[in-house]
Amino acid sequence: MYRIRSYFHSVRGKLSLVAVLCILIPAVLTMLIYNSLTREAVEQQAKENATDSMQLVNGSVKNLFQGMLNTANYFQANTDMKSSFIKMINTDQIDPYDKFMATNRIMQQLETLTYIGEKSYITIILTNGETFTNYSKDEMDPLRFQKEPWFENLKQLTGLQSYWVNTAPTMFPYDKISSPYQISVARTLRFDSTRIYGYVIVTMMENKFSRILGSLTGSQEVLLVDGDGRILSSPRQEQINQTFQYSRQMLESDPQAASSIIKDENKKILLTTADLSFIDWHLVATEPYQDAIVNISSIFNRVFLFQVISFIIFLVLLLVLMRQLTKPLIRLGKVASSVQRGNLEVRSSIRGADEIGRLGFLFDQMLDRIKEMLAEVSLTQARKRKAELAMLQAQINPHFLFNVLNSIRMKVMRGGDQDSAKMIASLSKLLRMTISRDEDAIMLHEEIELLTHYVELMNLRQKEEARLVVDVEVTSFDIKVPRFILQPLVENALIHGLNQSAGKIRITAVRNDHFLELAVEDDGNGIDPDALHSLRERLSTAAIEPGQETGRAKTPGMSGIGVANVAERMRIMFGDAFHITVDSGNGTRIIMHIPIREEGRPHV
Q1: What's the pLDDT score for residue 542?
Q2: Which has fewest Cβ within 10 Å: 332, 430, 452, 461?
């Protein structure tokens, strides 16, 4: 995210953004205008396609219903069948032979109708309880229809009216598996306009209708619903007898329009309806609007794709040209960033007769001048630091004391005071190691040896001895460190930490990559929080200004060089690569991180 933001803040990014906007805005406007002009045409075409598909399904469904209705009307209109039914009604006035012949004629007609058109179940129930069917009565008792709640409604029919029974569970056991539901039409058989002598019921399995409804390809879904919006037939059995979810929208739509577009939450639905002329049932088809226009909108998508490809090609060409034109500016910016990070050796090498070439030439000249000035400042600072180091080192190099102490030690030995002689000998060795060498750095084992003599000297002047523990890796002994950097820390531990009483001081040294981790730790009283905070602030000071406290110990000691003095010496020699930390709790631990070279020499 940062790189993207920084890119658009650059000249190249701003030019690229302007170029993209100049190409993108006209392209978007063109697409919006094109979409607005073609939306109505696409919508109208989608409605016409949905209506045509619905007409195909409507014709097939109507044929099924018409076949059922024709079968029901056949028994009323056929005089021969009517005569046979009348004879069966008057069974007490007919001889057995005529009854047999009448029954035989009825069954022959039923058998003939069974093999014409789609398979349907025909049930004839006379008012005297006689029944005739084209199926086995052992399979289903036809008198069960009389127990249905709708059967009483048949008596209210007049003339040639028919009663369509809504989808109901299948009564025929052998068809329940393939079709759990059935659809029936019923009508009365009458002597005249009032007298009913029987009923005819034509039943067809619902799956014959659902196969037709599911014959359309694509995402269009066709359903058969009644006037109350209840689903009578559907390719999905679980929808049957459920309420059609768009019933309200279907009622609110324009009755003159076969297709309309409705909204369902966040998507559009293309709703198509078709009425069945001889019944108040409807065929409804739903399809996501986007699926309905997918073929029509493919042309729009091709045009859009062509424009996108053209936009990308021209944009790439424009960006390539701008990249070539702005490459000198980008290079100049990278050089400036490198200079900001401290690299003064880099140069832009940009030359030319235009403004950018002139700017690159002047920038390189400015870097050359800055490098010369920094070299002069560095030389001056190096001389200044060398002088400061010599002044600090001179504080611990009293040459004349060495010869005087040797004379005193010999005189004390001759007087028989061995403890005093031992104390003077240790002090003499300390001074010899300090003044007999001119190097700024010594081996770590020499610094530790010097420290051992110092602790022995301090133990002779104290009532209780402090124990010095040295825990140094073997690989660290030959690393060179500045002279006399441990003694001030140990002196502080003896005087302030242990309070000149018994205790333990541990010296540890670990080599870690290009750094030597040198630590001095005591088990004394520690430092109170305010003093610790003050000490850390003093150690974080980058340099000691003239007249500033250098960290001399306020109590008497051999060297008087404080912790801050050591830290300042190390900063003069190593700069920011050196750092020191102080931790205190049950005791105090001072850790110095000293840079080292591969050959073991410090970065002096």
Answers
A1: 44
A2: 461
pLDDT of residue 504: 92
Count CB neighbours of 69 within 10 A.
18
pLDDT score recorded for residue 533: 87
Token pair in block for residue 94: 């007919």
407: left (phi over 0), alpha (psi -120 to 50) or beta: alpha
The strand ranges marked E within 208-358 are: 221-225, 231-233, 259-264, 267-275, 282-288
Helix locations, 341-417, DSSP H? 355-394, 399-414
Burial 273-301 (b: 16+ CB within 10 A, else e): bbebeeeebbbbbbbbbeebbeebbeebe
Distances (CA, A) of 335 to 16, 358, 365: 22, 15, 13
Residue 397: exposed, middle, or buried by beta-carbon count in 10 A (0-12, 13-18, 19+)? middle
Contact of 118 with 204, CB cutoff 8 Å: yes
What's the angle, vertex CA 275, arms to CA 273 and CA 280, rounded to 5? 125
The token pair that represents 312 in the structure block:
């990308």
Q: For residue 572, give the nearest of 552, 529, 543 by alpha carbon.
A: 543
Structural element, H or E, at residue 419: helix 418-435
Does the domain at 439-595 match CATH 3.10.129.10? Answer given as no
Q: State the Cα–Cα distance between residues 469 and 520, nearest whole angstrom.
A: 10
Cα–Cα distance for residue pair 332/360, rounded to 1 Å = 7
Q: How far apart are CA 124 and CA 258, in angstroms?
A: 39
Domain ranges in the chain?
Answer: 48-292, 344-387, 439-595
Q: pLDDT (tens digit, 9 = 90+) per residue, 439-461? A: 678 889 988 988 888 888 888 77
Neighbour tally for 73: CB within 10 Å = 16
Local structure of 240: helix, strand or coil: coil
Of residues 363, 360, 358, 326, the one with CA closest to residue 344: 363
Helices (H), 115-254: 206-213, 247-252
- CATH superfamily, with its number, for domain 48-292: PAS domain (3.30.450.20)
Q: Which two tokens stand for residue 279?
A: 């019944």
Give me the torsion for CA of 404, 407, 410, 416, rounded to 10°: -70
Q: Which parts of the chain sit beneath pLDDT 50?
A: 397, 542-561, 600-604
Amino acid at the residue 536: R
Q: What is the pLDDT of residue 548?
A: 43
Sheet containing 282-288: which strands, arranged edge to edge? 231-233, 221-225, 282-288, 267-275, 259-264
Which two three-digit tokens encode residue 332? 């100049």
State how far the Cα of 271 lies from the Cα of 250, in Å rounded to an integer.
8
Instruction: Name the CA dihedral angle for 407, 413, 418, 423, rounded to a multiple of 10 degrees.
Output: 0
